[in-house]
Design brief:
Chain lengths: ~900, ~220
Amino acid sequence: MKSSSPSTLPPVAVGRILWSRVIWRHWKREPWLTAVLVGILSLGVAVFLSVRLANKAAVSGFGLFTESIAGESDFILRPGAGRLPVEELWRIREELTRSPAEIFPVLEVSGALADEPNGPLLRFVGADLVALQNTANSIRNDSSGPGPDSESDGQGRFGGEDSLLGRADRVLVGEAFAKRFQVEKGSVLSVLIHDRKAEVEIRGVLPANPNLPEVPDHLLLMDLPGLQALAREPDALSRVEFRIPEGVHFAENRRLVGERMWDFASENGYLLHTPEDRKSSVTQMSAAFRLNLTILSGLALLVGVYLILQAMEAAVIKRRSEIAVLRSLGVTPAQIRAAWMWEGVVFGILGSILGILLGRILAMGMVGAIARTVNTLYYETTTTSISLSGGEVLFCLAFGLGASLFATWLPAREASQTPPAQSLKQGTRGGGIAVLKRWPLGLVLIAAGIGFAFLPPFQSGIENQVPLGGYLAAILAVFGASILIGLLFRPVSRGLRSGRPGPMRQYAASQLQRPGGRHRLTAAGLAVAIGMSAAMAILVASFENTLTGWIGQLLKADAYVAAAGANSVANENTLSPAVWKEIEASEGVAGVDRLRRYSVTVQGREFFLGGADYNNDPERYLQLIWIDPPAKKGPRVLEEKMEQVHPGWISESLARRLSIEKGSPVVLPTPAGPKKIEVTGVFAEYGNETGTMIVSRRFTREWYGDERLTNMAVYFDEGVDAEEKVARLSEQFPAINVRTNARLREESIRIFHQTFAVTYALEAIAVLIAVTGLGLALAGLLLERKNELATLKSIGATRKEVALAAMWESSGIAVIGYLGGILLSFFLGWVLIFVINPQSFGWTLSYRIPWGAFAMLGILTVLTAGLVGYVVGYQKAQLDSDREE
Amino acid sequence: MKALQVSKVTKSYGEVPVLKGVSFGLAAGERVALMGPSGSGKSTLLNCIGGIDRSDEGTITIEEQSLEGLDENELCRLRRESVSTIFQFFHLLPTLSARENIEFPLQLAGLEGAEREERVAQLIDEVGLSHRADAMPDELSGGEMQRVAIARALSIRPHLILADEPTGNLDTVTGESILDLLAELSDAHGIAMVLVTHSESVTRICQRTLRMQDGVILEEIATAG
């Protein structure tokens, strides 16, 4: 007689049977556990994806529109510093006499809403609307919907009765702007430009056009002469855009125009680039910040992976007898392993799909916070809508699936190695990863990590240094600590036995005295989550401590005056001489420090040039925190020109970006031609990451012919009430920003916390997932010991006493995980502060451990773990004793 | 005074009746063997007597204390003061040494220092494991583990011991010595015992044997023990 057994069936058929008869039925019997596992994985994927999407959206807001007002510009000409004189247009036209390039001059000016001087930065763009009128693909040539001025009057959309031409009081905005500020055609906005208040009328709302970049939600479009008049910069341009008409000679024409303009730019100290070059070089500046966020989001996923691993391990224990029966029925280990891996595949797919949907929603909430940080620290950007591409979906699907398979692999291997039924009667304590018992390996990994921490950064692109050695050090330390944590079990067990322990505490201590693989895995997982979160807390505390010290050192004046929009790094508003001189001469003012800030580009890197001068009081000169101090100090040292070389101080981020140090020469482009600077000091600066060079304002006034100020520090006479004086100045000059020392400090700290808001949220998620993982792990541990629990009950232990034992055990594991995690965080914090941070950002921070937060974290972790242990123990103590006949 | 009185006890799992009005009594110091095929209801009856499971109807009285009115905590107290259980697979707590396993119920019962140590030492001596007192369960043989389990059961000085296949996982020679030990200690301390077994050899230490089938006691036979 021919018979068939499961082992002779094709593997696919066996897999199908296992799936339908075993795995699927478990899912149906325990839908909540299945939902929790899928939910946890999806949370990890969601956090990872949302940070990626929000990162992308936050930086993609940069210059998409403002850098290519004419649609798809082929080239952009910019000055290396200051403005481009409008006369240059004639020279450019001469250069391109016989070339078919269309030329679009543009002026950009920053502003703010009059009733929100510290609110969102507005960007006024003045363009030659007549030229725009005649070109295809520009914003005005939108044929998909009603234009700002729908009647056809032969003068195009910008002409006619509602004409914007030459008007300093009429603007166009995009739909996003109208929605954000709740305005419509005909609305009048009160705005601040430099130190003046003005009113502009919205003459139209540009409809969205899918073929063009979205008009940012902070942009106001004007006619060029109109904006020049409004900003009182009649001869100034920010840039000139060039567009080559499409046609058979496009490539040849583009090459020709490119060559001529390149020569023109080189001869006159201008910069020529394509919109893509510009965007790429600017967004690279924030690459390190975004990379750090991405790594942090990976932490949530890592902890999620650990959780899945724990849950799958618990499932292996639970189904051990079932697996053994399957083995005894002839199912091969490979088939069992495959069945488990398929379960991981389904978990991965379901979790990823759900995570992608959830991540899309989370990203919408996160993009604002990231964009604010980028705005504060790097460059101007606006929040654009989140776009989820097919590639991104596939990437996250692969990532989620990979994580799930990684988490399933070990339990699957364990399941396949489970011996047949008879050997299970004793309830052997298995599980966990054998490598966790090899503590010398842990030492080796930590030592290797320390070695990697001293590697120089990996150079990736012009602006970007990747601290590869630092990341490797962190990863090795994480693995090393996961192994070494096993050494903490005995001391903690002894601690649990101390005093006069009750039987349940003693029983729990005995579990920790001889920890199983699962105990080690649980403690290691918790330690990794706590270690990484605590390391971030060290970084944030160190940053805060350093920043507070820096602010304290820097902010010595009684009050600070700036034009509106001072909270954004992209703010270009200035104070006119009339205004600042009046403030300086006003009653009660003892003296002022003045600063004029410009944007300059050297070696393709854009940074700030500050022209500073100080009042004559030798006690009141700019006292910075020095990384490499100048040889001489005092209020006048910056004015001491040495032959044709000007002394300059640079921030450490600029030193890193330009690869220069004290003594290095730098050639600055200025409207008065190139100027030689010798770096005479390097100072710490945490206000932006682009970097700053400070020279004497005496020189910048000469070079730029400019008496305006970006901001000034004001010292009052003794006895003057600062609050009252500031209130009087604010009343007198409503269009400018006057803040007391205390208020400015407060705002700086608020911005700091806002910058780290995303970090806090990610940390909380990681710890939450880790504690959930502890609960699941404990459930697995107790399930594995169900015979022990039954024995405890048979000798008279109550459910509460069993729960108490679980509580002590869980608390003990939490203490081990916490101690291990904190020890790990000291090293990770060191790597973050002294390796990753300086290599990525160029900032020197002082190391600070937030002991209070750590103590709180410890108490919360141990208490939560104890509570989770009690609940799980109480539930598991309900198990009936074996009913074997 | 009877050590145990079971009267008309019934128990069903869902629609399936497992015990159908079982009744029997046990005098102090008496040992009874409970035999029958798998599924006859022996272990369920043992669980109901130990208070780990509850009967649907009927009464179980231990030392004149009826189990029916007891809540979960009172049943626990009963198990830690009057009734002990010995299992086929020993069920020692694997992280505790032999001595600690024996000591554990005494700790639960709240017995303090010197008296507890004295009693543990005496029990270890009685089961012949003085030289293995500090060994962990995974370092002990099957017979040694069952001796520890017996000492643990005796530690609270119970009136009744419930033994579920106490020799089922031991070789014949070791099994015989464990039976001798149980009889000897039962006699010495006046402890009543219910021994669930498939093995005829167990009956030699019991005064009576109850044969169960399909949830009822079919016959009661007086035996040598």
